[in-house]
Amino acid sequence: MPKQVDHEGRRRRIAEAVCRLADERGLEGVTLRDVASRAQVSMGAVQRCFRDKEEMLLFAVGHVGRRVTERARARLVGSPAQSAATALGHSAAEVALLREEHHGEARVWLAFVAQAAVSERLAEALRASYADLQGLFARLVAEAARQTREADGASTAAPDALREARTLLALVDGLTGHVLIGHLTADEAEDLLHAHLAALWARLDARPGEAG
Prior knowledge:
Order of helices and strands: HHHHHHHHH
Shape: elongated
Number of helices: 9
Strand content: under 5%
Structural class: mainly alpha
Radius of gyration: 20 Å
């Protein structure tokens, strides 16, 4: 019988090789030949998986985005009894990539963002990843507001969950770069993130007439 090839598994293996090379050299240093060597597959195998370098990069950026999103969602599954507010804080911290073991992933992500400024197809892939994270944040903000209203018996207006999610996503995305270049330490970035979330919860907990 002919040997069965795990096509999707090979694509993920190639994507991992792309990410390792991008971390070391930037995207300009990623070639099909070097990716094949790093993934320990033939050039023909790479070309059967991807028509060209851009298609390979598109899959790789989606791979990184899915990995970050899955890690954030795993925090929710791992602690199902936690409040939505706590879950949002944990998820935002995961997305910010502040821990040292995630700095390689952060460098790769920022390399993709820079390349997306001149590649509409890559920009579209990044927007899809951001949309997934934004949706997760918005759901948690709305749930945290609902839990707060139920706990306090208050009739506060529901927040604009989408606006809050966009603001939080922009913040954590910015913190990633600031930590990576050394403008902020990871601890300083975490302090800023916690302060933003504390202000959000204070707004959610405010009674009519107390906000502002």
